[in-house]
Write a sequence for this structure.
C-alpha cells in the first residue's frame, strides 16, 4: 500500500524518540466519565489535560494551532458518539459537536483550543449528568422530540406532532408535559430558538433567511418570538462580544 513506507518511517521515529501514545484504556476511562455525567471526575481530568495536552498525542500538523484544532475535532467526535450511546439525542449531541467544531475553527491561538476542548468535555458531562436525573421518556415522546427537530423548518403545532404519533391531542399534550416538564408548544419554540441562536452566531444568514428556515411566516414574526424568548432582538444577540455567554 502507498502509505506503508510513510507508516514504517513514523513508527521508526516513535521508537527512536521513545514516544508513547496515551493508553486507550486510560483515554476511554475519561470518555466514560463524560458519558456517565461524572462531572467532578471530568473537572479533575481537565486540570490534567490543561497541563499535559500534548502528552501521548501524535503530531497532526506542523502548525500548532491546526494541530490542536484537529485533536479537538477528534475528541468532540468521540465524545458526541459515546454520549448518544448513553442516551443523549442524536440531534442535540451532533448539533453541540458542530457548534464546538465551528468555535474551534475561529480560535486564534493554540491555548484557546485547549481551553475550548476542556469546556466541551465539561459541557457534555454536565448535560449527561442532568439527563441521567431525568425520568425515562416513553417511545412516543422520544419519537415526538426527534420529529420536532427534524421539522423545525415547518410552522409546527402540537396537534401536528400528536397526529404524527397517532395520539389524541389532549392525551398527547398531557403526556408531553408529564414527561418533559413543559408543553409541546413551549418545547417547539425552545428548539427553534436554540437553533436560531446557533445560526445567528455561526452563520452569515440574514434574519429573513433564518426566519424562513425555521418556519416563521415573516422576519418580524421571528424577531418578535426571539425577543419574547430571550429578552433581546436577533440583531442584538448576533453581537457575539456581548451575548456569546448566553448562547445555550
Amino acid at each position: 500500500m502507498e502509505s506503508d513506507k510513510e507508516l514504517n518511517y513514523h513508527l521508526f521515529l516513535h521508537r527512536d524518540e521513545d514516544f508513547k501514545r496515551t493508553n486507550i484504556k486510560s483515554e476511554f476511562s475519561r470518555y466514560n466519565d463524560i458519558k456517565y455525567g461524572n462531572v467532578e471526575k471530568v473537572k479533575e481530568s481537565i486540570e490534567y489535560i490543561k497541563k499535559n495536552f500534548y502528552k501521548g498525542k501524535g503530531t497532526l500538523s506542523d502548525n500548532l494551532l491546526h494541530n490542536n484544532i484537529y485533536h479537538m475535532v477528534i475528541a468532540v467526535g468521540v465524545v458526541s458518539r459515546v454520549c448518544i450511546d448513553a442516551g443523549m439525542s442524536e440531534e442535540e449531541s451532533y448539533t453541540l459537536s458542530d457548534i464546538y467544531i465551528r468555535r474551534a475553527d475561529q480560535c486564534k491561538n493554540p491555548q484557546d483550543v485547549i481551553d475550548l476542548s476542556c469546556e466541551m468535555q465539561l459541557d457534555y458531562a454536565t448535560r449527561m449528568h442532568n439527563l441521567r436525573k431525568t425520568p425515562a421518556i416513553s417511545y412516543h415522546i422520544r419519537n415526538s422530540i426527534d420529529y420536532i427537530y427534524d421539522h423545525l423548518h415547518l410552522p409546527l403545532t402540537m396537534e401536528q406532532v400528536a397526529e404524527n404519533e397517532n395520539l389524541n391531542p389532549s392525551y398527547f399534550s398531557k403526556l408531553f408535559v408529564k414527561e418533559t416538564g413543559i408543553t409541546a408548544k413551549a418545547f417547539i419554540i425552545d428548539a427553534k430558538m436554540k437553533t436560531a441562536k446557533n445560526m445567528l452566531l455561526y452563520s452569515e444568514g440574514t434574519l429573513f433567511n433564518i426566519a424562513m428556515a425555521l418556519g416563521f411566516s415573516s422576519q418580524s414574526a421571528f424577531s418578535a418570538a426571539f425577543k419574547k424568548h430571550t429578552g433581546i432582538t436577533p440583531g442584538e444577540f448576533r453581537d457575539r462580544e456581548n451575548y456569546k455567554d448566553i448562547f445555550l
Notes: The chain has a mean pLDDT of 83. The two ends are 46 Å apart (CA to CA). The chain has two domains: 4-133, 139-246.
